[in-house]
Structure formats: C-alpha cells, structure tokens
Model the fold of this input.
Amino acid sequence: MDSAFYPAFLFVGCALGLACLMYGMGRVMGPRRAGRVKEMPYESGMDPINDARRRFDVRFHLVAIAFLLFDVELLFLYPWAVASRNPEGIDRAVAATQTAAGAMRGATDFSRLLVFGEVMVFIALLALGLVYAWRKGVFQWR
Amino acid sequence: MPTDSQTLLLLFPEISLVCMAAVIFVGGTFGNNRRGWSFYALAAYGVAAFALWRSADAWSGGAAAYMPSGPFAVDIMGYSLRWLALATGVVLTLLAARQAPKQLASEFLGGLMLVVVGVMLVCSANELTMVFLGLELVSVPTYMLLFLGRNDRATAEATIKYFFLSILASAFLLYGMSFLYGLTGSTSLPEIRASLAAAHEIPALNVAQQPLLQATLVLLLVGLGFKIAAAPFHFYAPDVYQGATNLTAGLLATAPKIAGIAVLIRLVVAAFPPDDFIWQLFMTLAILSMTIGNVCALWQNNIRRLMAYSSIAHSGYMLIGLAVAAAANSLLAEETSVANLQAANLQAAGIAATLFYLTVYVFASLGVFAACSLLAEKERGFENISDLSGLAKSKPWAAGAIAVFMFSLAGIPPLAGFWGKLSLMTESLNVALPFNGSTLATAFCVLAVVGMLNAAIAAGYYLRVIAVMFFQPPTGHAEPSVHTEPVGGWLTGAAVGLCTVAVLGIGLAPQMAAEQSSRSEDGVRVFVTTHATQPAANLATLEIRGAAEPEVTQQAASK
Done:
C-alpha cells in the first residue's frame, strides 16, 4: 500500500476516537433527565414531524444568506492570502509574464497592486452586501 | 498579450455596469425612487456604451488584435453582441421605468443591469469557466426579476418552474463541460480546439474520442437548448412567459437567447472537430423547434403564450445557420482546395446569417413586448389577442407598431425579418448547391423547404394578430380595456420607438448588412489561404463580424 495514505488513516482514526470519547464521556458523566421535548430530534426549534408544506419564518433564509456572505468571503480570502505573497505563487507568475512581455520593472509592482486591489474590490462588494442587508433590516429579529 | 491596464480598459463597460448595479442596490435602500433610479440606470448604460465605443479599435482590429489565449476573446463577434446586449438593457430599462414594482424598483433595475453584464461577458467568453459563470450571471438575477414582475400565484409558479428547469439545464451543461475538460485537459476554448483537432488527425484517437465527443455535444445542447428555448427543451417557455409580465417575458425572450447563441457558436461550431453528427443534430433541433413552435402557436389566444411559441420557432431558424456552419466544417475536412474555399465562405456565412437573424429577432420581439406594455401597464396587463380588436381605430400608433413587429417576425419583405430569413434559406441552399444526391445535399434541401413551409405557417398566426387589430370591430370588452386605459408614458413609447427604428432601419438598409457580410467573408478568405492545411482548427469563424449592425445598436444604446 502507498504509505502516502497513512496520515489519512491516522486522521480517520483520530476523528473516530475523539467522537467516541466525547460521546462516551457524555453518556457516563452527564446527567440524564429525559422529557418529551428533550427527546425530540433537533430541528432548529421546529416541530420535526410535520407537513412539509408548512410555512416557516423567512428569517431563517435571511440569516442563512447573510452567513453565506461571510463564509464565502473567508473561503476565498484564505487561498488568496496564501498565494499572493508566496514567492512560488502569483508573484512569480506575474513576474514571468511581465518579463516575457518585455515590460519594465515597475510593471510587476503595478500587477501586484492589482492583485491586492482586486481582493479589496471583492471585500468592498461584500461590504456593500452587508450594508444592503443592514438597511433592509435583516439583522433586526422582530 | 495585453497588459493589465489594457485588459481593464477592454472590460470597462462590464466593470462600470457592475459598480453601478451595486450602487443601485445599496442606494435603493436609502430612497427607492423608481423614476430616479431608472434615469440613473440609463446614464450607466450610456457610460458603458461610451466606453465600448472608445474601445472599438481594440475589438475590431482584426487578426492582429485577436487575443487567442486568456478568458476573453477580443473579436468582432463579441463586440457586436455586446452592443446588442446593451441595447436590450436600455429598452428593458425604459420599460422598467414605469413597470418595476414601486417598493423594489432599485432591486429590479440592478438585477436587470447584472443580466446585461452577464450577456456581455458570455458573448466574449473564451473559457469554459467564464462561459458558465456568465450564463449563471444571466440566470440568477432572472429568477429574481421573474418573481418581482407581479404579485400573484401564476408568477410564483412561473418563477419556480424556470428556477428548477434552469438549474437542471445548468447541470447538464456542466456535465458536458466536464467531458470536454476530460478529453482535452484544458478549459480554454482555443486549447480545446487545438487539442481536439490534433486528436482528430490521428485515426485511432479520432475513433476513440468520437463517441465521447458526441455525448458531450448532446449534453451541451441540452443545457444551451434550454437557454435558447429550442425544442425539445422548450416545455417551460409557454407557461413561464404567460406567468411573467410583458417586461420579464421580453427579458426571457432576448437575454438568454443572445447568450446561448453566442456560446453555441464559440463552443460547438468553432471548437468541435468536423463530424457529420454535429450538423445532423443541429438540423434535427432546427426542424423540431421551427415546426413545434409554429404549429403550437397557431391555436394560442394568450399573447405571451403566442410569443413564447414564436420565440421557440425563431430559435429553430437560428439553428439553421449553425447547422450550415457545422456542415461547412464537415465539407472543409474533405480537403480539396476549391471546395475548401467555398466551405470556409459557407461557414462564415452561416454564422453571419445566424447573428443577423438574432439581431433582427431581438428587436422585433422586444418591440412586441414593449408595445404590449404600452397598451397595458397595469398589474394584469391584457392577456388575449381578442382584447386587441379594433385597436387600429382607438390607438393607431400602437397598432401600427405592433403590426411592424409582427410583419418583421413573419418575414414580410420591406422589414428586417425578411432579410434574416432570406439569408438563412440562401445559406441552407448553398450547402446543398451541387445537388449531387449526397445525404448532405438532400438534407439541406429538405431543411430549406421545411424552413419556407414554416415561414408560411408562422405568417398564419402573426397575420391573425394584425387582422384582429385592423379589421375586427371592438366588441365584448370588459371595462377597463386597452381602449379606455391611457397609454404608458413617453419612456415606454421611446422603447417602442427604438425597436421600430431598428427593425425598419435594418429592413430598409439591407445593403449595410450585405457589406458587412462580404467584409467578413473577405476576412475569412485571407485566413483560409494561410490555414488551409488545418481546417479543423479554423479560428476564422471567430473573426467574422456577423451582420449584427453596430450602427443601429449604437443609436439604441446612446439614447
């Protein structure tokens, strides 16, 4: 077997062990006072067994979308942060392209600025989304 | 390769429109003045049009300016179609100035602007990711706009139908793209083209990749066929159009169609190696769409259902041009120098005919929906064709405008639609020209005949609308009817006027179109002499100008 998989197996083992440990400790040490409501499967405070066509609060969706806004932001910013100042990443690619195009030295700096500026534009657009949601009263739980 | 600042300049129209849309979205929460934001949106389109006009040299500079790598193809087709997208945006914004929901006007106008940006991006996209993102940028705001159109059950039903089917179509498109990526290892269209062409030259590889390519083509056509509402992917269209308002139906009839045709040209006709299966598939879809669309339209009473079937039929006509181009691709593979030259011309002419037809269709179709908005901008709008009876007496100008658009859609000579149909049928017969009894010649003869028969069927229902308006007395109207309600404001009138000018202009000055197509053929001919040895990698198809008239659309966009 390829030894490259050992870390993956180790990871799976640790995850399983941790889950078993936490679940078992809760079972052994935790107090158990069962009640009708407590035995119910957790459905974000909704009745879990009901008509699928039941109406539920639109605020669930609004919060979910607002959450997505920032989740996607993080998801995008991590790889950017790793790649942008990495000598093997964007910097090198930009420099190679610029050298091939016969550009002057300053052009690379401009491109760097552009890479930074693009993410700033991205964050600004997301911030506008936040302003929009705020103004529309998404964060007021009336 | 252009430097960053040049790329930014080339994309300035899109960038400025996105920024303006963001301003509209956020600004609308501070003060939702429908009229004010409409004028702001029109100004934004003006800025974008100015930027596009300034960058004309870079886009139309011919082979020298063509950027073969990178996510954007800087070529004349992209340039012309961007003008068309801008013009569509202007007309729809003019309509929205009176029809957007008052409380959510800025959301409506901003969404409309994002749709226009999506179409513009797709028209010059040269990379699979860009194509898909652009198409989604068209689709996602469209769901919102459909729902905002009106506040009743029919609209909600239409929105849900469109939403689910559109997602399904996107999934098919993505699946097809994944095959394309798997076959070639690249998402860049020029690289895909080169890779597929190289494999095509090696018999063993060609045999291996052909079934996969055919499956890919089918998957792509399912996705794109939905966007352009071609049969048999048309089932959503009548219901959705009926549930939409005149404004959103106009959007559905134009924006996804421009984007879908542009992608079909770039992806399928230009990137796929020659294969008889391609033109056979296009031809089948064309015949199905034309016939189903026109025959079903014959017994529609609802005006928007009628226009939905009409849009299906017109997709069929546009597919004729693509079938011609694909067949020319097959002919090119035969590699005799005389036939080569002819086939290259045919390929250019087929695509040019499709683009010309697209331009003509967009203006005529938008015009019909704009005129319907002019007659009834209240919530319900008018629904049935019989409501129009006697309109020629009560509102002669509106009736005249609708008549012009209907005549153009039907293809009556002095108007633009006639030249569109003429060029398509001519190209179809040109493919069949040797009449040597081969399958290809016979098939294209049949295609031309079916096309002409369909034009006759279509005249049946287009002329019925005109007959109702001009020759039937106004009877049996419930109050209020289209006769008693005042016409919509001058902004709606301006939208109708723009479309009328475009349809009449293209119709009365066809020599412009002829010059354009001969120019494009010249360009292709130059290209063929240098690249005759690699017919499959025929980049020339992307160089053509098409017959889309920037002059006309410039007028439309700058107003």
Summary: The helical segments of chain A are 6-29, 36-39, 59-84, 90-100, 105-135.
